[in-house]
Specification:
This protein has 298 residues and is of the alpha+beta class. It is built from nine helices and 16 strands. The model has no long low-confidence stretch (mean pLDDT 92).
Length: 298
């Protein structure tokens, strides 16, 4: 039985599990279902209309942003700008597009966390090839990360032992593709990192991502798997501080506990559902829906 007649749309990837389960949960509570493929949205700014198929998004009560794209790129920012315009119509968007924009660009996220004194791996950001080469030699092992990426796509591990000639060639090839160097020291992790889950700023729990046998990273994309996790109090406190830098409705904070203490890798622009379900047995779609309804009724 539905509890409300509110019209709440979901921006996501039609057919994808997390998008569909969120739309299911919203429909169960409201009787209304709309999955919005942002690539097919039409923004007619002259007429103050943003439409998708036969729906005017400005007529909705709220929009929940689950996913903007399969992969990150500057185009994601453009799509979020359209949702910023929808907000002007009085539609509440979860999370705020302006806050998501600060996260999809890795540099913006890193600078925000560093300004807040959130501990992160040693990081160097530059367009200077010589400086990038020196950083790799200083770090011994470094990870090159694109400014726009998810699930470790496009990342490369560089090793000082390969010698400056080979490293210079690798760096130049990477710069030719990416146009920027974002280098992070490769830390000695205990075979896993963690996603700490926050809803409306409230900590709900954590799950671990355990790396596959042959992968340096822990992403499910690279063969990792989810498991329960019990982070220490310091890790939880740092994750809470990290997510507090962004006004997000729902997010996960990527953390690791190293021999030198907890470090934060990033705050997720969208926050995954699968890890919370498999690692925490949390029905985030249901919890998130209730959070949205409670906020709209407040």
């Amino acid at each position: 039985m539905t509890e409300t007649s509110l019209k709440i749309g979901v921006v996501g990837i039609p057919g994808k599990w997390s998008t569909e389960v969120l739309a299911d949960a919203i429909e169960a509570q409201t009787g209304f279902r709309l999955v919005i493929d942002i690539e097919q949205v039409i923004a007619d700014l002259g007429r103050n209309r943003v439409t998708y198929q036969d729906h005017c998004l400005c007529d909705l009560d709220a929009i929940v942003v689950k996913k903007i794209s399969q992969t990150y790129s500057p185009t994601v920012i453009d799509r979020l700008e359209i949702l910023r315009f929808v907000e002007k119509c009085g539609v509440q968007v979860f999370s705020k597009p302006s806050e998501i924009i600060r996260l999809v660009d890795r540099m913006s996220c890193t600078i925000s966390l560093t300004r807040a004194d959130v501990p992160m791996p040693p990081t160097l950001i530059t367009e200077n090839l010589d400086a990038a080469l020196t950083a790799v030699e200083d770090y011994d092992e470094a990870i090159l990360k694109p400014l726009f990426s998810t699930k470790a796509r496009g990342m490369e591990v560089l090793k000082a032992k390969d010698g400056s000639k080979k490293l210079r060639q690798q760096l130049q090839a990477y710069y030719d593709k990416q146009g920027f160097f974002y280098l992070q020291k490769k830390l000695n992790l205990p075979g896993q990192d963690m996603g700490l889950v926050f809803l409306g700023g409230e900590y709900l729990g954590a799950y671990a991502r355990i790396s596959g046998d042959k992968s340096w990273n822990t992403t499910i994309y690279a063969g990792g798997k989810y498991a329960p996790a019990s982070p220490c109090d310091d890790t939880i406190a740092i994750a809470r501080q990290a997510q507090a830098q962004f006004d997000l409705s729902y997010t996960t904070v990527d953390m690791a506990e190293t021999e030198d203490g907890p470090v934060c890798f990033e705050v997720s622009a969208f926050g995954g559902f699968k890890g919370a379900q498999e690692g925490l047995q949390l029905d985030i779609a249901q919890r998130y829906t209730q959070f949205v309804l409670d906020t709209l009724r407040a």
